[in-house]
Amino acid sequence: MAADRLYLDHAATTPMLAEAKAAMIEGLERWANPSSPHGDGRAARAALEDARRRIAGALGWDGHVIFTSGASEAIAIGLTRAKAKCVLTSPVEHDAVLRVTPLAERMAVDADGIVDTASLPPGLVEGRSSPILAIQHVNNETGVIQPLDRIGRDTGLLFVDCAQSAGKLPLPDADMIAIGAHKFGGPPGMGALLIRDLALLEPSGGQEQGYRAGTENLPGILAMAAALEARGDWLPAARQLRARLDAGIEGAGGQVIARNASRIASIASYRMPGLSARAQLIQFDLAGISVSAGSACSSGSLKTSHVLRAMDYDETAAGEVVRVSFGPTTGEADIDRFLMQWTAMAERARS
Q1: What single string gives the DSSP state of each residue in 286-337?
Q2: Which of 212, 206, 220 is nearest to 76 (CA)?
Q3: Core-most of 175, 193, 202, 252, by most CB within 10 Å?
Q4: Structure confidence at residue 124 (pLDDT)
Q5: Beta strand 108-109 with 105-106: parallel, antiparallel or unpaired?
């Protein structure tokens, strides 16, 4: 990346931490298959299991850890192989959830994107065995934090997509949790399904205690563990930066999405009335600033955000929103540079 570019798309992926890079290089020297019975294989297995314990410890998780290729695969495994008869979820979930739950009942959300569990029709769950409630902890577009402590567990099993919160916020009390390493300074292509009880899943055979086939990515696993252990508490500083950005956007005539909701400090979305997100992204990119419109998994097509549409934004308004997301190295000068460009663009759009 050019030295003069400003990267404000950490919700899509964040640069690997130096500790994670060093651990990955070390892992590349441990080339033996962890499933091999010889001494080299046993040494690789020992390193893998040590990393599994370190990851659980760093996250404060006392259940099982199944390594995957990322949060999307963890979501697919958890929601398609869970021993549940129905899935309940919301319309503001990540595409990875929506893709594997086409027949799920979708709970309504309010104008801030907060899930309303009372919106389920009476008697929907009655008579059904072990329903699973799939809710995202932190929305990847708006940064809104779902009040999982108020949603409750009496509906059934709770599956939480923690791709944007793991390594930043404490994990929620859940039966299954999906995480992705590249969101907290680990490598891309590495994630995990955290699960309280392996009996909740139908096994598939192969590695990972029979729940995920394929030779384990030992370098990635070691890098993931190192990233979690090295992460610092940078969210308080990010909270001040976002407050500065929120105020600047509103002062320039913009709109802060979910302004009054509880939001993670590292993600925010802003609407610039009169200028499409597509045009904004082009101009920001030409100015050397990297931001996005919605999820990185779908922004390549720049389709209208399903999250904003579920929050009752019309097609035009939803199509004028860009996402800004911070990382540990984001500073005041970065916010001021973005605001200067945003303000100039908004003024041209009004003229």
Answers
A1: HTTEE-BSS-TTTTTTTPPPHHHHHTT--HHHHTTEEEEE--TT--HHHHHH
A2: 212
A3: 193
A4: 53
A5: unpaired
Q: What is the DSSP string of 189-221?
A: T-EEEEES-GGGB----SHHHHTS-S---HHHH
Task: Using alpha carbons, list the distances in angstroms from residue 349 to 252, 303, 337, 343, 344.
Answer: 12, 21, 19, 10, 9
pLDDT one-digit tens code per residue, 111-134: 999 998 777 655 555 544 568 899
Structure tokens at 12: 């899509």
**Is the distance from CB of 317 to CB of 346 less than 8 angstroms?**
no
Any idea which residues carry the catalytic annotation?
A: 297
> Do the Cβ atoms of 136 and 146 come closer than 8 Å?
yes
Query: What one-letter code names the amino acid at 135?
Result: I
What long-range pairs does 23-31 form, CB within 8 A, spacing at least 24?
23/219, 23/222, 23/223, 23/225, 23/226, 23/227, 24/187, 24/219, 24/220, 24/222, 24/223, 25/219, 26/219, 26/222, 27/218, 27/219, 27/220, 27/221, 27/222, 27/223, 28/219, 30/218, 30/219, 30/222
Amino acid at 157: L
Nearest 5°: CA angle at 221, between 62 and 139?
A: 65
